Amino acid sequence: MEAIEFSSVDFLNPVEDIRIEYKTANYSLPKTFWETYSSFANTEGGTIILGISENPKGHYHVVGVDDLQAILTEFWNQLHNREKVSAELIRDNGENVLKYKQFGKVIVCIYVPKATSYSRPVYLNGTKENAFVRTDDGDRRVTDEQFKYFIVDSQNSIDDQLLYNYTIDDLNLDDVHKYKEEFAKKSNNPDKINTSDLDFLKDIGVFKIDRTNSNRDYFMTVGGLLFFGKLNAITSRFPFFKLDYFRYRNDSDNDWEDRVSSGDMNFPSLNIYSFYNIIS
C-alpha cells in the first residue's frame, strides 16, 4: 500500500496498552519486536507501530524508520523462518502490514492477529517455553500454568487446523462421493447428492473459513485431510501416519488371518474413512 497522510490526533494513542505497542526502528527490527509479536498472538492480537519513540516523560514522538526496505525484508525473512518464530500469522497481501507518512516520516503498522488455539503458544527461537503474553504494561513470558493451558487447548483443536497448501485435489473424491451418499440417506436429504463436492465439504467442515484475514477464503482442515485425503497427501503432512488392523481367529493365536494396513499394495490409498469402511 502506498504511504498516505493522516493527522497525528487521529493516529497516536496516548499510551501503549494491551493492543498497541510503539517501537523505534531505524535500520532494522528492534530486538523486542518478536517478543511483542508472540505476546499479541498469544493474547488478543494487536498492532506494532514502528517509527515511534517514547521519551522519559511517557510522551510519544514520530521519528520514522530510516530504511523501510531493509526493515520489511528482515521482517518477512524472519517471519518465514520457523527457527525464529513458530507461527506465520501474517501474509504478504497488504492487509496486515501498512505503511504511512506522518510529519514527513515513514512509519509502519503491523497488525498481529490472535493465533488460533492450535497455533498457540506462538514461541521464539525454537523453544516452546520462549513464549510471551500481553499485559496492560507490556510483554511477559508465559508462566508454567499458562504454557500448560496453551498446549492442552492446542491439542483439543488440532482437527480444525487449517492447511494453506492443500486443495480438493488432495482428497480421494471417490470416498467423498460415498460419504455424500451415506449422508444424504441418513439425513433424509436426497438433494445433498446434487451438491457440488466443494460446497458439501464446506458444509461438513472439511473446508473452513480462515478468519485471520478479511478475504474469508476457505482452506482444508487437518481433520478433513486425515478423513478423506489421498495417502501421499496425508503423509506429506504427517510422515508417520499409519493405519493398521489385524484380525486373529481367537485371542490365543499368534498369527493373524487378515490384515489391513496403509501403504500395503492391496490398500494403496487408505484414509480414515476408507479404513473404517473396510474393517467395519
TrEMBL record:
UniProt cross-references to Gene3D superfamilies, sorted A to Z: Schlafen, AAA domain (3.30.950.30)
Record-annotated Schlafen AlbA-2 domain positions: 16-142
Listed name of the protein: Schlafen AlbA-2 domain-containing protein
Organism superkingdom: Bacteria
Pfam families found in the cross-reference section: SLFN_AlbA_2 (PF04326)
Signal peptide: none
